What does this fold into?
Amino acid sequence: MKRKTLRDEIQLTKDFPSLEAKVFLNLSRTTEALSVAPHALLRDAGLSPSKYNVLRILRGAGDSRLCCREIVERMVTRDSDMTRLLDGLERKGLVERTRSQRDRRVIVSQISAAGLELLAELDAPMQATHTAQFEHLSRSKLERLSRLLEEARRSLAC
It folds into this structure.
């Protein structure tokens, strides 16, 4: 069976405007394809990818409580309404919010025991999903791909 190229997948009948455009479209198409399985896993757990990202950030912060700005800075994919995300996580009992002791105007968040439990349940299936997605690539190819993606982002203001 012939492998489909990006040109075949998007049924492009003319040349790409540039190699850079082709790479961008390839990255976009690949990101979309790789997102399907993890998003389904999260949907079954009642989480959006952004809420999952927030929970992982808060778990990584340990006993530290983070304000909205600190969470936004660490997000993989930025979400413009962090307050709404935290409201939803708090309603589900996955996050606890309090006023900062240093500055009472600031609200800080910390993952709850229920949030930690949910992430613990998702850790193995999520890792299995990522392993399955990339098992056809050697370790050296994965490391090279990761380095190339980091290099591509270095010059961007993100």
In short: The mean pLDDT is 92.
